[in-house]
């Protein structure tokens, strides 16, 4: 930053969000180069978790309350990177995405490979909707994580790509409007061509568009009928 590099450009080069770069800059100004020394990895038996119960509850409630935008982040759906950025922004804790992924599993989220296997099996019927040749396939499902102590059992819409990238957003799986909003956010955030396979029939599935187009991306959406 001292050389004049914009935070947006730094975020692009390092593959992180603009908020994370802002936290790095603040840590550097407060602590100097020591802010970037790697912490000891791993945790000995009996050591406390990196996040306290109160901090876990704060993060869980933020995820349950809405999109990352409502928590001050510049992305549209939750994933490991977005939760990592939220922890860093709120608590100045530079947790790795693997650690954050472990928290998600602890809270009852499925492992991406397990979710992918389950959703592929659930969507074994014929594909009657449009299909974009060569586009990435993303499977859409839903679940109710256990979350952390004192957090309500909020249902979430989940999506996993064939590459194992997991995204999620709190929402009622019965609501076609909630599903339509989720898939539109997925497409806009990915900025690429997608084939989205919804693996269960929400109420009034006809309200979910079968084709979405934006300036820089598009998606074909398959939805089973009830």
From TrEMBL:
One GO MF term attached to the UniProt entry: sequence-specific DNA binding
Protein origin, superkingdom: Bacteria
Entries under SUPFAM superfamilies matching the protein: TrpR-like
Ranges for domain Insertion element IS150 protein InsJ-like helix-turn-helix: 4-44
Full protein name: Insertion element IS150 protein InsJ-like helix-turn-helix domain-containing protein
Organism for this UniProt entry: Actinokineospora fastidiosa
């Amino acid at each position: 930053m001292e050389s004049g590099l914009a935070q947006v450009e730094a975020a692009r080069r390092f593959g992180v969000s603009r908020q994370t770069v802002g936290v790095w800059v603040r840590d550097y100004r407060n602590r100097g180069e020591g802010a970037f020394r790697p912490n000891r990895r791993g945790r000995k038996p009996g050591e406390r978790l990196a996040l306290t119960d109160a901090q876990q509850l704060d993060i869980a409630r933020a995820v349950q309350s809405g999109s990352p935008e409502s928590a001050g982040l510049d992305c549209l759906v939750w994933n490991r990177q977005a939760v990592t950025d939220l922890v860093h922004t709120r608590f100045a804790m530079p947790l790795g995405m693997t650690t954050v992924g472990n928290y998600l599993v602890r809270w009852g989220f499925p492992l991406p490979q397990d979710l992918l296997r389950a959703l592929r099996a659930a969507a074994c019927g014929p594909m009657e909707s449009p299909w974009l040749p060569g586009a990435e396939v993303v499977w859409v499902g839903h679940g109710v994580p256990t979350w952390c102590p004192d957090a309500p059992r909020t249902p979430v819409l989940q999506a996993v790509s064939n590459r194992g990238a997991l995204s999620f957003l709190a929402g009622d799986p019965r609501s076609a409007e909630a599903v339509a909003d989720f898939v539109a956010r997925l497409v806009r955030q990915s900025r690429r061509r997608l084939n989205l396979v919804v693996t269960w029939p929400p109420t009034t599935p006809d309200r979910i568009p079968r084709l979405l187009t934006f300036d820089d991306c598009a998606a074909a959406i398959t939805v089973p009928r009830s």
